[in-house]
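Retry 2 of 3 after timeout on previous attempt. Resubmitting structure tokens to design endpoint.
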């Protein structure tokens, strides 16, 4: 609306201003190009007639043909001036009547006086013009002079009227232009007030309300007022505020829920600390108090066999052997269970560890078993260094290699291959090491690939393979303690291949294709 009003005012002012300027230019052009030139042309017309009158009188007195020159030239100039003057005065009736009267009077003067006088003169024979002819000629030309005076008077009046009209038009133009400027200023002021009332004030209200919301007054409603565009913007801001309030309420609810969960976790942590304390106490009891009776049972059974062996039959000796074996196996189970429970709890070292050194120690512990079974162990020339617990990593290698040697195929000596390669975690983008221990043993069926990592789970009887079924469960716990995972590669069909991943704790290199380090006799290096 403001733009429409401004456009209307500008267009109206432009039309009025253009009209006034055109009117001023028209009046000025009439004065400069018509009235004033007409006055000058009238003087030339009068001079032409005066030249004719002078030439006629001189020719009549002197009878010299050269005196006719002003007459003939004056007659020609009269025609030219009259034609120009007629164009200049245009449709001004009074001035046209003056010109017509002068032309008629001049024509009568030439017909009744000048032409007969010229015709009656003999060239080269001057004569005296009678007084009556001279008086008649003077009377006729005096009438022309009177018409000259009237023409000059009327031209002067026309010039004054044109000047007065030009001054009036200029005055009107100045007043109208001044009024237009005043109207522009008043319109601009009115539009400024209107814009302030309809636009600036609603915008200021929206700004103040938005700042209050931005400072934390989320319940303050954003007002919707002013033009349609500002109302639409205010509605959008209000919708955003309502979404913020909704999200804030949901966030508060989640915060309260998290606070409750934190309290529950704290309570569980307290319960876990208490439970751990009880487990430590149980471990102490199991490692001392529970094993002491087992040792006594085994010792006294052995003493009974030694002292009364001659008096016992074969069945009695077998019962004593069963009791001693059960006590020893119970001690082994207790020790294995204590070892499993202590992973990551008792020995919580976190230092740079060379996998080469931990593998060397594990192979040294298994030297007798490897030599007895003629085992061949292939390993990379260099294994990386990670951050972890040295003792647990030795246990990891020892259990994996020991299982490969224990569960060997009866028809061929065990051949164990260790590999290591670097890779990147696809989720976190961090570096890690992928290791594997593959053998050519009896293998593990695919349906038992997960079961073997459960504590005390055995796939074979104790009469076929010794052990308590805790080794692979211990390996899984050690790998997970170091932030990795372990699994059986079910696609490997030549035996069993255990794969596990360990995070890269320090720079290291490994070459999966490097030749194995073995002794000439085929024993581990």
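Retry 2 succeeded. Sequence:
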């Amino acid at each position: 609306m403001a733009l429409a009003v401004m456009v209307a005012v500008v267009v109206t002012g432009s039309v009025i201003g253009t009209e006034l300027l055109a009117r001023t230019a028209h009046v000025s052009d009439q004065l400069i190009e018509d009235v004033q030139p007409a006055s000058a042309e009238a003087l030339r017309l009068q001079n032409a007639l005066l030249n004719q009158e002078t030439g006629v009188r001189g020719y009549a007195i002197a009878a010299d043909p050269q005196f006719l020159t002003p007459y003939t030239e004056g007659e020609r100039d009269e025609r030219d001036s009259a034609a120009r003057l007629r164009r200049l005065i245009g449709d001004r009736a009074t001035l046209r009547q003056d010109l017509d009267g002068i032309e008629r009077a001049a024509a009568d003067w030439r017909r009744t006086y000048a032409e007969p006088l010229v015709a009656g003169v003999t060239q080269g024979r001057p004569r005296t013009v009678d007084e009556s002819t001279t008086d008649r000629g003077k009377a006729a030309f005096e009438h022309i002079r009177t018409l000259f005076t009237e023409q000059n008077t009327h031209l002067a009046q026309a010039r004054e009227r044109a000047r007065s009209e030009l001054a009036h038009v200029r005055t009107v133009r100045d007043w109208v232009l001044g009024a237009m400027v005043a109207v522009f200023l008043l319109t601009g002021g009115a539009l400024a007030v209107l814009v302030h009332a309809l636009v600036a004030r609603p915008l200021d209200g929206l700004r103040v309300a938005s700042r209050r919301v931005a400072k934390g007054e989320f319940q303050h409603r954003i007002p919707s007022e002013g033009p349609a565009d500002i109302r639409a913007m205010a509605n959008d801001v209000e919708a955003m505020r309502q979404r913020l309030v909704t999200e804030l309420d949901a966030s508060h609810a989640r915060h309260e829920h998290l606070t409750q969960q934190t309290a529950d976790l704290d309570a569980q942590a307290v319960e876990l600390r208490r439970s751990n304390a009880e487990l430590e106490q149980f471990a102490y009891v199991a490692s001392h108090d529970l094993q002491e009776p087992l040792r006594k049972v085994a010792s006294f059974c052995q003493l009974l066999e030694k002292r009364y062996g001659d008096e016992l039959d074969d069945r009695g000796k077998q019962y004593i052997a069963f009791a001693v074996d059960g006590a020893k196996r119970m001690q082994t189970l207790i020790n294995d269970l204590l070892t499993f429970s202590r992973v990551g709890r008792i020995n919580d070292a976190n230092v740079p560890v060379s996998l080469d050194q931990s593998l060397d120690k594990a192979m040294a512990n298994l030297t007798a078993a490897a030599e007895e079974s003629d085992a061949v162990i292939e390993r990379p020339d260099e294994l990386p260094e990670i951050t972890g617990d040295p003792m647990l990593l030795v246990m990891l290698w020892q259990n994996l290699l020991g299982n490969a040697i224990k569960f060997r195929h009866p028809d061929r000596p065990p051949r164990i291959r260790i590999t290591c390669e670097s890779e990147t975690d696809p989720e976190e983008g961090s570096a890690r090491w992928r290791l594997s221990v593959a053998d050519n043993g009896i293998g593990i069926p695919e349906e038992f690939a997960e079961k073997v990592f459960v504590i005390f789970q055995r796939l074979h009887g104790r009469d076929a393979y010794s052990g308590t079924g805790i080794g692979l469960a211990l390996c899984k716990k050690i790998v997970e303690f170091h932030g990795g995972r372990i699994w059986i590669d079910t696609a490997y069909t030549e035996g069993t291949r255990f794969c596990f991943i360990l995070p890269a704790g320090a720079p290291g290199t490994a070459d999966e294709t490097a030749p194995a380090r073995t002794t000439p006799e085929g024993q581990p290096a």
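Attempt log closed. The CA atoms of residues 25 and 166 lie 9 Å apart.
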